[in-house]
Amino acid sequence: MEDKNLxxxxxxxxxxxPGEIIIIKFFYFETPARLYAARLKEAEIPSFVSNxxxxxxxxxxxxxxxxxxxxxxxxxxxxxxxxxxxLLNEINEDESFHDADHDDIAYQKALHEKDxxxxxxxxxxxxxxxxxxxxxxVFNNPVGSWR
Length: 147
Fold this sequence. Notes:
- By secondary structure, the protein is α+β, with helices and mostly antiparallel strands.
- It is built from four helices and three strands, in the order βαββααα.
- The protein has helices spanning 30-42, 72-88, 102-112, 119-139, and strands at 21-27, 47-50, 63-68.
- The relative contact order is 0.10.
- The radius of gyration is 34 Å and the shape is rod-shaped.
- It starts with 20 loop residues before the first strand and ends in an 8-residue tail after the last helix.
- The chain has two domains: 21-90, Alpha-Beta Plaits (2-Layer Sandwich), CATH 3.30.70; 102-139.
């Protein structure tokens, strides 16, 4: 099977007349439009994406997915399922930090940082033990001094 980008319906496809190709959905970005088109192709619904090569870095909602009018009901059902699945993957508003102020951010950081209260006394204790060991070795060296 030849894999090619379809940007029109050829005349050999059952003689479509004017007005029989419709836009089923608009997109802001090319990637989701291509994914939806691939899902329609998988269901054997011919489709094509138009305005995908715009020079605008962020789409303005003008990227469109075209299908035949006779496939509208089946395509609408597939697109509805994809839209429903995409809505389930969106971030929950309770987990979003878009409207957090500095106090909220500091609080969240404090919750997730490791507690260092017990680390400092351990380090101080280890330094004191090492100092006592060095002093004991220096003052009780039977061989001689380090000097």
